[in-house]
Amino acid sequence: MEKPHAIIEKLQVSADTTSLTALGAEVVALKTAVGLIFQKLQDPLRDSLLKELRQLDNKSLNDLADQLEQFRV
Q1: 35: closest CA among 64, 4, 1, 6?
Q2: Containing domain of residue 48, as a range?
Q3: Residues ≥6 apart with Cβ < 8 Å to 46
Q4: Max Cα separation, the chain?
Q5: How does residue 5 score in pLDDT terms, banded at 50, 70 and 90?
Q6: What is the pTM of this model?
Q7: Cβ neighbours for 68, distance < 8 A, ≥ 6 positions apart
Q8: CA 30, 50, 37, 9: dihedral to nearest 10 degrees?
Q9: Number of domains in the chain
């Protein structure tokens, strides 16, 4: 039997958008968090995620895939 889904009450997430520099820092923080999650995945899941990012042949997604590969340790 599956456990019921957890509900997060009053979730508050924000981003500093006061300048391009602040927004850039928010993006770097988010990429780092995704990289740390990527690091915890098993190799088949890592490979699958990288393949999915690259299959769209989009510069930004290709760059993200390259950056995520740095988290393979």
Answers
A1: 64
A2: 42-73
A3: 38, 68, 72
A4: 48
A5: confident
A6: 0.79
A7: 34, 35, 38, 46, 49, 50, 53
A8: 60
A9: 1
